[in-house]
Write a structure and sequence with these properties.
Helix content: 25-40%
Strand order of the largest sheet: 6-2-7-16-8
Strand content: 15-25%
Structural class: alpha/beta
Number of strands: 16
Distance between the termini: 47 Å
Order of helices and strands: HEHEEEEHEHEEEEEHEHEHEEEHH
């Protein structure tokens, strides 16, 4: 519990905008990739992204012409191995798989991987932060789905995962099934996990929701809930933090993909990010980051996603 508690409360969070908050604007949480963007909720929308390009455009020009020459990226600071501060390291710099990707995008746009300003945002404020212009993009284990595409644009997928149950090893919960009946289950507000639980929860009490997914782990450690539902990639990191918990069930019960989220209509920025992801897959950068942060905690080997483009 030490790491989880220590990670909560560093960096400056983006504050909710008036009218924002947990209003369903950000309906989803983590997700993961392989082959194409996530389809956690439906397969009837065009969730393919724009073809990559290295050309500048109005969105990138505006970013480059700002007084402070930095890319502003919304991230998590509490997700072990994805975006977090290690309290045992001097300086406490943000690090993880998502942080590596953000540095890579900044390098493409400014020629300097350090030309990035990180803003920590809670799960349910990812879309409001993009729409209000508080961030240029969100790189925060954010699942691509049809509902979110109404509000933001996404890159191609860069990781694949799915929803899974996390519970104490000694628990009689065996997965996303009838063993959840009568149990208290925690999920993050505005997450795919909550959306799935609202559709089917096997008689569980799903009233416990939190702004940030890591808060569910703390609730679990304190004995306030019996289980957590989140995507398997994040849950694997949490199990690595706390050896008393484990993933339940042999595999996730959904298939989802993470993407980089940007403001609607910022086509030049979307294409540039997709160019970064293409290069990242091909030059070994994706694999190097995966091996460093994630390979030891996931039960099966994950490969870089193969993109699908709509034009």
């Amino acid at each position: 519990m030490g790491i989880a508690c220590a990670l909560t409360g560093t960096l400056v969070f983006v504050l909710p905008q008036q009218g924002g908050g947990d209003d369903g604007a950000d309906r989803g949480g983590p997700g993961v990739t392989v082959a194409s963007p996530a389809r956690a909720d439906a397969d009837d929308c065009n969730d393919r992204s724009l073809r990559p390009s290295s050309k500048d455009g109005p969105t990138i020009d505006a970013i480059k012409n700002r007084k402070v020459k930095k890319l502003v990226v919304g991230v998590d600071q509490n997700s072990y191995q994805w975006g977090y501060r290690d309290p045992n390291k001097k300086g406490g710099e943000l690090e993880g798989f998502d942080i590596d990707l953000a540095h890579k995008i900044a390098e493409e746009i400014f020629g300097d991987p350090e030309a990035v300003k990180f803003r920590a945002i809670p799960t349910n404020q990812r879309i409001p932060a993009i729409k209000s212009g508080q961030v240029d993009m969100v790189v925060r284990t954010m699942t691509i789905n049809c509902q979110r595409l109404d509000d933001v644009d996404f890159s191609t997928g860069y990781f694949e995962t799915g929803q899974q149950v996390l519970a104490p090893k000694k628990s009689d919960i065996t997965g996303y099934n009838d063993t959840l009946k009568g149990k208290k289950v925690c999920s993050a507000a505005g997450s795919i996990a909550l959306e799935q639980l609202e559709k089917k929860n096997f008689g569980a009490d799903i009233s416990t929701t939190v702004p940030n997914q890591l808060d569910c782990l703390v609730r679990l450690q304190l004995g306030e809930v019996d289980a957590v539902v989140t995507d398997s990639a994040l849950a694997a990191g949490q199990a690595a933090q706390d050896p008393t918990v484990e993933l339940k069930g042999e595999e996730p019960f959904t298939t989802e993909h993470y993407g980089v989220a940007m403001k609607k209509g910022s086509d030049d920025l979307v294409r540039r990010v997709n160019k970064v992801l293409d290069d990242y897959r091909e030059d070994g950068g994706w694999q190097k980051s995966y091996d460093k942060w994630l390979a030891g905690g996931l039960s099966s080997k994950v490969t870089p996603p193969a993109p699908e483009y709509r034009d």
